[in-house]
């Protein structure tokens, strides 16, 4: 095993509790037995170790570091060992690789105007560095029966709610919505998509629908009445 075999080494952080580093490995690799990740703060000579674990797909090793704190200017010096030998060195500044946690507690309810109000909460609270920082969101929603037909809306302001207009939906369908976020001062990565929330747009007849149906029906009735009157009139004239 040489340094050339280490592929796609990368790190990201929620900038609150953990710094996660991962790298690609060949199948059958036992990450915890073959690798060790040593790390230290750039301003300190104290070295710590992280024992990696195999990822869910078994083709990645993942190491989760839980520092005491995060600050913008801090850099970590990493050294990856394979069977006791240093094979990879890497410096990472957590503030430059922020992947925030997804928004939480999504909820949706139907408004009086027929639209749907989606609300959520930020995943950070004081004293977290990201709490209260400028954040933008991206919303996606789709018909549950047609998951490939996705509508995406950018919410380019700091908000905790968004109104999904009824005009963008089709009646009689179940819908699914999800949200992700990105902190504008730490824009390296978008968060993962949040947990999904479902809602149903029922087929309720509105005043607009009644009007749309009434106009053509009225026209048909008027035309039918005119035809009947015409035939009655011609028959009356011919009788006399």
UniProtKB/TrEMBL annotation:
It is found in: Membrane. PROSITE patterns: FN3, HEMATOPO_REC_S_F1. Residues 102-209 form the Fibronectin type-III domain. Keywords: Disulfide bond, Glycoprotein, Membrane, Phosphoprotein, Receptor, Signal, Transmembrane, Transmembrane helix. It comes from the Eukaryota. The chain crosses the membrane at residues 213-233. One of its GO terms (cellular component) is external side of plasma membrane. Receptor for both interleukin 4 and interleukin 13. Couples to the JAK1/2/3-STAT6 pathway. The IL4 response is involved in promoting Th2 differentiation. The IL4/IL13 responses are involved in regulating IgE production and, chemokine and mucus production at sites of allergic inflammation. In certain cell types, can signal through activation of insulin receptor substrates, IRS1/IRS2. This is Interleukin-4 receptor subunit alpha. It comes from Oxyruncus cristatus (sharpbill). The lineage of its organism: Eukaryota, Metazoa, Chordata, Craniata, Vertebrata. The gene is Il4r.
């Amino acid at each position: 095993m040489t340094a050339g075999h280490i592929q796609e080494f990368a790190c990201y952080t929620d900038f609150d509790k953990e710094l996660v580093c991962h790298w690609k490995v060949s199948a059958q690799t036992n990450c915890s037995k073959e690798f060790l990740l040593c790390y230290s703060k750039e301003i300190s000579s104290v070295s710590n170790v992280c024992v990696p674990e195999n990822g869910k797909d078994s083709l990645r090793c993942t190491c989760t570091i839980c520092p005491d704190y995060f600050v913008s200017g801090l850099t970590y010096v990493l050294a990856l060992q394979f069977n006791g030998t240093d094979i990879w060195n890497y410096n990472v500044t957590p503030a430059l690789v922020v992947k925030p946690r997804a928004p939480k507690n999504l909820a949706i309810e139907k408004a009086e105007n027929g639209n749907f109000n989606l609300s959520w909460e930020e995943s950070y609270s004081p004293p977290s560095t990201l709490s209260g920082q400028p954040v933008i969101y991206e919303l996606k929603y789709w018909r549950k029966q047609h998951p490939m037909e996705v509508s995406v809306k950018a919410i380019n302001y700091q908000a905790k709610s968004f109104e999904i207009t009824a005009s963008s939906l089709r009646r009689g369908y179940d819908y699914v919505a999800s949200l992700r976020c990105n902190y504008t001062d730490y824009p390296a990565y978008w968060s993962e998509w949040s947990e999904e929330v479902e809602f149903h747009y029922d087929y309720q007849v509105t005043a607009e629908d009644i009007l749309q149906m009434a106009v053509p029906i009225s026209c048909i009735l008027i035309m039918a009445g005119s035809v009947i009157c015409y035939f009655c009139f011609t028959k009356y004239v011919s009788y006399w």
